[in-house]
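Minutes, project check-in

Agenda point 3 was the complex the collaborators sent over. CS summarized: two entities, 798 residues total, and the question is how they sit relative to each other. Sequences were read into the notes so everyone works from the same version.
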Amino acid sequence: MVKFADRILKIPDDPLNEIMKLSSDKEIISFSLGSPSKEAYPVEFIINATNKLLTQNPESMLSYGLQEGYIPLRKNFIEHIANKRNINASLENVLITTGATQGIELVSQILIQDGDVVLVESPTFFAALPVFKKYGATVIPVKMDRDGIDLNDLETKLIKHNPKLLYIIPTFQNPTGITLSKKRRIAICELTYKYKTVLLEDDPYYDLRFLGEPVLPIKSHDKYENVIYLSSFSKILAPGLRVGVIVANKEIIEKLVLAKSGADTNTSLLSQGICSEFLESGFYESHLAEIFPLYLNRLNKMVECIEEFFPEHIQFIKPEGGLFVWLGLPKEINTQTLLEISSQIYKVSYVPGSIFFINQSECNNYIRLNYSSNDESTIELGMKRLGMVFKDYISGLSF
Amino acid sequence: MVKFADRILKIPDDPLNEIMKLSSDKEIISFSLGSPSKEAYPVEFIINATNKLLTQNPESMLSYGLQEGYIPLRKNFIEHIANKRNINASLENVLITTGATQGIELVSQILIQDGDVVLVESPTFFAALPVFKKYGATVIPVKMDRDGIDLNDLETKLIKHNPKLLYIIPTFQNPTGITLSKKRRIAICELTYKYKTVLLEDDPYYDLRFLGEPVLPIKSHDKYENVIYLSSFSKILAPGLRVGVIVANKEIIEKLVLAKSGADTNTSLLSQGICSEFLESGFYESHLAEIFPLYLNRLNKMVECIEEFFPEHIQFIKPEGGLFVWLGLPKEINTQTLLEISSQIYKVSYVPGSIFFINQSECNNYIRLNYSSNDESTIELGMKRLGMVFKDYISGLSF
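CS then shared the predicted structure for the full assembly.
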């Protein structure tokens, strides 16, 4: 009976919610998540940090805070994260958000209006798409190859669509795991500036590199102050805390602060305090050192299992970090329609590739697998099951 | 150089931010806040609850959570808050938000579009206004008297403007402290239903009643499921945690969940866990019992000081609860222009009344004073200073 606003009617039901429901049975081995390993949560550190913060500084933790964010966290972010990534930032360039999710939301609020075009990599992080659409954007995909977004296709679409925003995940891209080359990063800075398109760089996985050499963020090459940079504590510390960071030029941050004020006043101070301690104590670095072997072993195990249990003619690139393996299966397999059988009968779940595309009927033969959230023996068991799903399907069994 | 979206250009600089800056000098006694007493924060309880939650249930606290909110908190809210207020709700009617601020934001996102009208009490909570406007609303004020919103003026405006939403704070209204009578609450349910206007009831102060008899929320009379109810942990437990609650019909909650998903995925789990423990342990009730004498003494002290130190011909109603005293000063006093002198020379600050009105040039002679956040001797000193500001102004001194 209620007449809802058009903007919310544009949002389809959250596809991940459905997938999560399909994975809720405890017997199901889920490769659907995008979280750190639960065994890797530094629980003791968080307990100690909380006790310290609430004992030494209860008022700062429990009262209203600055909309821009807790000053010690912003300072520690600049010193321990931004500086190490060659990103030039001072306090007025840094806004703390309630997860990087809120970063995408606030940037959309201040930039997008009806009729604007947003360019995204194809495939891309599915949860960003309804947010762009909610604020009136038409979302247009740009091709990728094994080195990331395709510059020719990008320039063609910058010219053709005069987009407001380019949304890009250059490092360990979600879902493909691909890292954009340095050369393309520099070129993209020039291109987006030339065509007056703001670049939104979403970079939650940067420090999750287990192999190869780091490639500095696009923001580190941003001489025009045209890049809005999103960082997150969800993929390394804990997503439940809901802390993200935006780095951008002062004018943009000022508008984001106005949007933040209406959105939730400020991010949970206790969460911000914990993240600040995480950086300041140096525990961030030692935590990374601790989780790397764990994650690398899991990644290696998953890759081994693909080779051992999966059908032939699988396409995939072993990622150098991040949380996901992206897999192309033989064309005849529709991973969207197979998901229900896979979860309910074979007791293993994944994210079907189609949800990462604007045109969801494309690329039905892809899947995204998370390797961080199960131990090696569970990975082996789950991958064996998943291999059976696909092999049984190909051989025409049980379908 | 960036072309911002029209919606964000509609938002003026946050007036409270300016006021906070004017109060940042430690020598200034601030009556500007809307927070609980800092001495009343139950720090030990929060430390113990955090330790318990992180020790017993670290995964639930640190992983991604349900967009709808942490189930134990939603259950405890129903049992310990909703039921006691005669509000009928089951799990599917309850959504946890990042403060009640986010409640206003999400409701606006799903309901308001360009050209819609939102009715508000005049005066009203200033921070809600830019949010309604951001999503395209024209905001129209409805008169109030000493019993709350004026039903005749309301009906006239319901007929004339066919509004999408009526936003109302019926209990210890911000800024006036007025509580709407039961009779009017029932009538408003009928009126808004009749004219197909959704009623947004913002009720953060309900349990902060030190005097008189409780008046049940409008939501308790909502036989048409037309009321969206906002509750908050900010005014009783701690605003820094950023936890609010929305109660509404299932259809509305489903849309709100879609908006919440893009907004910040879920509210900080640690914050939600602490609030859940606060209710489940029974500490909520004993905390109220502990703060009531503290708050009542402060309220009484402030009222005494008004009578002792302020000029004659002051209009005010002693509130029975909430956090504020609302004061009408002699007409010749412009509290907006006096604020700078008051803070910088007399070292006392308040919130000028004009910011609570749609037409901000009206009612320049009002101020809102918070009585919860200073102890009695500080209240006395601050009120003495404030009395001098007004008396000096009237007698033409130092201006």
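Noted in discussion: The longest strand of chain A covers residues 227-232.
Follow-up: revisit at the next meeting once the mutant set is ready.
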